[in-house]
Amino acid sequence: MTAPDQREHAEEQERPADPHHMAPLAGRLLEIPAAVVLVLMVGHVVANALLRWATGQSLPETLEITTYWYLPAIVLVGFVAAARRGEHVAASLLYDRMTTATRRIVDVATDLLVAVVCGAFAWYGAQEAWHNMEIGLTAGASVVVIWPVTFLVPLCFGLMTVFSLTTLIRRLRAGGRANAEDE
């Protein structure tokens, strides 16, 4: 390697990975289903409204399907997709006034707290999802089966746990920085 190549290679080695980066395929695996579900929900609700306007009759179980299938899928998958992109709401009023060292401590503590809380939600959600499957959970008094969608809770919170732990590990390896912008 020439001297400039060695410097560039050394800079790449020093630069920590972006904590919000996942393989593009993994991102699409999250966002495409959420977009499809959103389009299906809008189509379903519009079809229901048009049918009700034209005939006075609604599509059966539209409210239950929207409430117990579409919305949880959109919210939970969107939650993980937003974290993957680094687009969660940030309250930076105090954070921006902290020293770099304090920010690093807060970042590490936050990553750890998020991992623990999301891991707990995933664990509890998995137990509930299995229970819901065993009892064949339906949407209240309707016949709409909803237990399968409850498995999204442990899946999405499990992904958030892995994501937070990965971010934590990257941050610790980088001396508390998650990416080059932290400097």
From TrEMBL:
<keyword id="KW-0813">Transport</keyword>
<feature type="transmembrane region" description="Helical">
    <location>
        <begin position="145"/>
        <end position="169"/>
    </location>
</feature>
<keyword id="KW-0472">Membrane</keyword>
<keyword id="KW-0812">Transmembrane</keyword>
<feature type="transmembrane region" description="Helical">
    <location>
        <begin position="29"/>
        <end position="47"/>
    </location>
</feature>
<feature type="transmembrane region" description="Helical">
    <location>
        <begin position="105"/>
        <end position="125"/>
    </location>
</feature>
<keyword id="KW-1003">Cell membrane</keyword>
<dbReference type="InterPro" id="IPR055348">
    <property type="entry name" value="DctQ"/>
</dbReference>
<comment type="similarity">
    <text>Belongs to the TRAP transporter small permease family.</text>
</comment>
<dbReference type="Pfam" id="PF04290">
    <property type="entry name" value="DctQ"/>
</dbReference>
<keyword id="KW-0997">Cell inner membrane</keyword>
<feature type="region of interest" description="Disordered">
    <location>
        <begin position="1"/>
        <end position="20"/>
    </location>
</feature>
<keyword id="KW-1133">Transmembrane helix</keyword>
<feature type="transmembrane region" description="Helical">
    <location>
        <begin position="67"/>
        <end position="84"/>
    </location>
</feature>
<protein>
    <submittedName>
        <fullName>TRAP transporter small permease</fullName>
    </submittedName>
</protein>
<dbReference type="InterPro" id="IPR007387">
    <property type="entry name" value="TRAP_DctQ"/>
</dbReference>
<feature type="domain" description="Tripartite ATP-independent periplasmic transporters DctQ component">
    <location>
        <begin position="41"/>
        <end position="173"/>
    </location>
</feature>
